[in-house]
Specification:
UDP N-Acetylglucosamine Acyltransferase, domain 1; 3 helices
C-alpha cells in the first residue's frame, strides 16, 4: 500500500477520502492507498470536526510534510482552480509526488492522456483522444467529449458537459450542469457559471453565465 496525504480538509477533501476508499475496495485495483491523514493550513472548526468522523486524522498544516520521504504521495483536494495552483506551488519544495485517483465508477477512455494529480469522481466520463493537464478535477457525473484538451488545474463540476474538440486552458472552472458546445475554447482562468450554455469562445479570465452564456 502506498501512503497518501490529502491536502485540503474541506468538503472536497472528505469526498476524496471516499474515492480512496472506493479505489481500495474495488476488485482488481492496481494500486491501494493508506491515507495518513489530511493537511490544511486554514481548516475551519467545522471541517476539523467532520474530519474527526473519518478514519484518517487531521495532521496539521502543510509544514507537517517536512522531512517526509518521497514514498508519500499527495492529492490536492482544493476545489478552486486558482487556489489549487497556489497550493501546488506551496507544496513544491517538499518534493513529494502527486497521486491520481480514478473512482472505479468513472469511465476514462484508455487512450486518455492525463497529468499527475487527476481526480475523477464516480460517474465522470471521458471519451476518446482527450488530453488532461496536471491536477484536473472531474467531478461527479461530468462528461468530457472526444478530442478535447484540458489544461492544468481545470475543474469540471458535477453534471457539466464539455463537448468534443473543446479546449479549456489552465485554471478554467466549468460550473455545475453547464455545457460547453463543440470546438470552443475557454481561455485560461475563465469561469463558466453553473447551468450556463457556452456557444462561443470565452476569453481568458472571463466569467460567463446564462443560456446562451454571456
Ligand atoms: C457565475 C458565478 C461564477 C458568479 O459568481 P459571482 O460573481 O460571485 O456572482 P453573484 O453570486 O455575486 O451573483 C451576481 C449575479 O449573477 C447571478 N448569477 C449567479 N450565478 C449565476 C448563474 N450560474 N447563472 C445565472 N445567473 C447567475 C446572480 O443571481 C446575481 O444576479 P443579480 O445581480 O441580478 O442579483 C457563480 O455563481 C457560479 O455559477 N459558479 C459556479 C459554481 C458551481 O459550479 N458550484 C458547484 C460546486 S460543486
Amino acid at each position: 500500500m502506498d501512503e497518501l496525504v490529502i491536502v485540503g480538509a474541506g468538503g472536497l477533501g472528505r469526498e476524496v477520502f471516499g474515492i480512496v476508499d472506493a479505489v481500495n475496495r474495488a476488485a482488481g485495483s492496481r494500486r491501494r492507498w493508506r491515507v495518513l491523514g489530511f493537511v490544511d493550513d486554514h481548516p475551519t472548526e467545522e471541517n476539523l470536526k467532520l474530519v474527526q468522523r473519518l478514519t484518517a486524522p487531521f495532521l496539521g498544516g502543510t509544514r507537517w510534510l517536512t522531512g517526509r520521504s518521497t514514498d508519500t504521495y499527495l492529492i490536492l483536494a482544493v476545489g478552486d482552480p486558482r487556489l489549487r495552483r497556489a497550493t501546488e506551488r506551496t507544496l513544491r519544495p517538499y518534493g513529494l509526488p502527486a497521486a491520481s485517483l480514478i473512482h472505479p465508477y468513472a469511465d476514462i477512455s484508455p487512450d486518455c492522456v492525463f497529468g499527475e494529480g487527476l481526480i475523477a469522481f464516480g460517474g465522470a466520463r471521458v471519451t476518446t483522444n482527450v488530453v488532461l493537464g496536471r491536477h484536473v478535477h472531474l467531478n461527479q457525473n461530468c462528461a468530457v467529449g472526444h478530442d478535447s484538451v484540458l489544461g492544468d488545474h481545470v475543474s469540471v463540476n458535477p453534471l457539466a458537459a464539455v463537448s468534443g474538440h473543446c479546449r479549456l486552458d489552465d485554471g478554467v472552472l466549468v460550473g455545475t450542469t453547464a455545457a460547453v458546445l463543440q470546438r470552443l475554447t475557454v481561455g485560461g482562468g475563465a469561469t463558466v457559471g453553473a447551468g450556463a450554455c457556452v456557444v462561443r469562445d470565452v476569453p481568458p479570465g472571463a466569467v460567463v453565465k446564462g443560456v446562451p452564456a454571456r
